[in-house]
Write a structure and sequence with these properties.
five-stranded mixed β-sheet; 3 helices; disordered N terminus
Length: 156
């Protein structure tokens, strides 16, 4: 019994004031993967980024994702639950008029370089969610998104 008391006191002292990532604090879910794919639309200057995040539930709770923030932007998304894996797909679309002007005046077949000046914060990535039966909002941080080359369809 004395050993348990010492262990509890040690744990309290060791954890006081120490910042701990919400990924390690969260008992309900963990991040399996976080990917981003840049895409270009059918119109000049229309482009965007598709974000795909996979989470693994640690129990049978029903989770509802409320907010996806990717690289400092609030992103619209869809959630798909399959077993204990939650897949979140978000799309951030933007139009770059400067790009449109450049592309409109280029000869057909000329290569186009990425001239988009993206105002993205690569450290501001997180998901807010609730567990069914609770109004408490939980937040889990995503350390970074891995860039993936697009395959198949060009526009999401």
């Amino acid at each position: 019994m004395n050993n348990q008391l010492y262990l509890m006191v040690f744990w309290m002292l060791a954890s006081c004031g120490m910042p701990v990532s919400s990924l390690y604090q969260d008992k309900t879910v963990s991040v399996i993967s976080a990917e981003k794919t840049e895409w270009v639309g059918g119109r000049a200057g229309v482009r965007g980024i598709m974000y795909t995040i996979k989470l693994k539930k640690k129990n049978n709770s029903i989770l509802m994702v409320k907010t996806l923030t990717a690289e400092g932007n609030t992103v619209s998304f869809v959630q798909n639950n399959t077993g204990n894996v939650i897949t979140i797909r978000g799309n951030l679309q933007y139009k770059n008029d400067q790009d449109a002007d450049i592309i409109d005046h280029m000869p057909a077949g000329a290569p186009v370089e990425n001239t988009v000046s993206q105002k993205l914060d690569p450290k501001d990535n997180w998901i807010a969610y609730t567990v069914k039966g609770s109004e408490t909002l939980h937040k889990i941080n995503i350390s970074k998104f891995t860039s993936v080359e697009r395959s198949g369809e060009l526009v999401p």
